[in-house]
Design a protein that fits this description.
Radius of gyration: 20 Å
Shape: globular
Number of strands: 14
Order of helices and strands: EHHHEEHEHEEEEEHEEEHEHHEH
Largest sheet: 7 strands, mixed
Number of helices: 10
Structural class: alpha+beta
Length: about 350
């Protein structure tokens, strides 16, 4: 199948179909709404690897028992500005959005809300949670570590996960400033998507089992860190930042100790994933008005920076919001495998 085999569908229809499949798999109303919200965010901003195509995987894990269908989230406050959320082995989106809510409540009083998540599962697009905080007026950071699939710089062994780092901040009169980046050159789900589409991978994104770079999605066995062959030491170190916050501070699972997300016969054992959310209230620092004026001036200056010939300077989030507008107008592209699963 080629990339042009994708078909486009309205946001509302996809949300309805995703939630219907999750409901059929037994997911509780709260957990399936959270998962649908996060997946649709990813699909709308063009992160298709973490969008609605993951619905089938989540349904399989719900059916196998790895994910609890009706998790009971709990919160343990550990300090004036810190807490832990227990995800009860449910869908990770449910626990992550809860962590943002808890972080906001803490930040309103303490200025900063630092929230760890334990006993969770796959997070999806980390930017969905950073955005949720920014939309409420808070500077927000969200991260997770994942199972080993990325080589170290000059390495020929899977070590870190794709370990995303996401930051968002409110921008007066506009949609938030938003950065959502994997610390690998590409996410594993991009490889899976390109296999579905029979599409070549970008250069410097993946490697064969012996660590040699490849653009063949079928030959790819591991990913390369952000920066690729020449500058991957930067991405490899940043991946460790996600592990520090998400696994070490929360007491959960190291990248190398995870049950793999894909492959293997065990779909009943929970993965005990950790996440981390940091929420900051601008009112408790320079003040919300001062911060708003400063970030507006900063972004205006950034966008006004002189581009190179044929180039365009954009602020973090500009590409995502343009993509969202385009997809809301023309429909969200969906790969053939997901079209079949959703019954479209």
């Amino acid at each position: 199948m080629q990339a042009d085999d994708t078909r486009r569908f309205p946001e509302a229809l996809l949300r309805e179909c995703v939630e219907a499949r999750l409901a059929e798999a037994g997911a509780s109303p709260g957990s399936r709404a959270a998962a649908g919200r996060a997946m649709l965010h990813a699909s709308l901003v063009g992160v298709d690897s973490h969008g609605v195509r993951l619905a089938e995987h989540y349904c399989r894990m719900l059916g196998g028992g790895r994910l609890k269908r009706d998790p009971l989230l709990s919160v343990e406050h550990r300090g004036a500005g810190s807490a832990m959320v227990d995800g009860d082995d449910g869908l990770g989106h449910f626990a992550a959005y809860k962590a943002v809510e808890v972080g906001i409540a803490l930040a309103r009083t303490a200025g900063v809300g630092a929230v760890g998540v334990r006993r969770s599962s796959h997070l999806g697009a980390a930017g969905a949670y950073a955005l949720a905080g920014a939309e409420q007026g808070f500077v927000t950071f969200a991260t997770t570590n994942t199972d080993s699939m990325v080589a170290l710089f000059d390495g020929a062994q899977k070590f870190h996960g794709t370990n995303p780092l996401a930051f968002a901040a409110p921008l007066p009169g506009e949609r938030p400033w938003l950065l959502d980046m994997a610390t690998s050159s590409i996410p594993l789900n991009r490889v899976m998507l390109h296999r579905s589409l029979d599409k070549t991978l970008p250069e410097g994104g993946a490697a064969t089992p012996d660590g040699e770079p490849t653009t063949d999605p079928y030959a790819a066995d591991m990913l390369l860190p952000l920066g690729g062959v020449d500058y991957g030491y930067k991405g490899a170190a940043l991946a460790g930042v996600a592990t520090l916050f998400s696994a070490l501070l929360t007491g959960t699972t190291l990248d190398s100790d995870f049950i793999p997300m894909y492959g293997g016969d065990d779909i009943s054992t929970p993965r005990n994933m950790g996440h981390f959310v940091l929420v900051i209230d601008p009112d408790k620092f320079a003040g919300r008005a001062a911060f708003g004026a400063a970030i507006a001036r900063y972004v205006q200056s950034l966008r006004g920076s002189v581009p190179r010939a044929g180039g365009r300077v954009m602020a973090p989030g500009d590409r995502e919001w343009a993509e969202m507008d385009e997809r809301r107008a023309t429909g969200i592209p969906v790969d053939p495998d997901t079209v079949r699963f959703l019954g479209l």
